[in-house]
Amino acid sequence: MRSTRSTVTFSNPFTLSGYPGDLPAGDYEVLVEEELLQGLSFEAYRRTATYLTVRGRGNHAGRTELRAISENDLKEALSRDHATTENKKDQSDAALSPQEDLK
């Protein structure tokens, strides 16, 4: 077995499939566990689990939870976050555009 850690950043509040409520924007640690595939002539690993580290808020401050997620659910959440950020950017750019018909 091997474990790797990485960090993902959400710019907006987001949801995860199978979990109630929104999670706040911010940096989240992702833990990926993989097992070595036996019987091959080269070293290869298979993903066995992916977890998102969620830090408690409010009454649960100081508590840390590892939420099991699928790789696809994580990719979808990041994709939705990126789309939301781009949409907000496009809307703010439009709001800042000069009005040409003031005459």
Key structural traits:
globular; alpha+beta; 103 residues; four-stranded antiparallel sheet; 1 helix
Walk me through this protein's architecture.
The chain is α+β, with helices and mostly antiparallel strands and 103 residues long. Helix content is 25%, strand content 36%. It has one helix and four strands. The chain has one helix at residues 71-96; strands at 2-10, 26-36, 45-55, 64-69. A four-stranded antiparallel β-sheet has the order 1-2-3-4, with helices on one face. The chain is globular and about 55 Å long. The chain starts with a strand and ends in a 7-residue tail after the last helix. 4% of the residues are buried.
**What separation lies between the terminal Cα atoms?**
70 Å
Tell me the radius of gyration. 20 Å
- Helices and strands: which structural class? alpha+beta
Shape: globular
Helix content: 25-40%
Strand order of the largest sheet: 1-2-3-4
Number of helices: 1
Question: How do the helices and strands line up, and which of them pair or pack?
Answer:
Blueprint (H helix, E strand, L loop, with lengths): L1 E9 L15 E11 L8 E11 L8 E6 L1 H26 L7
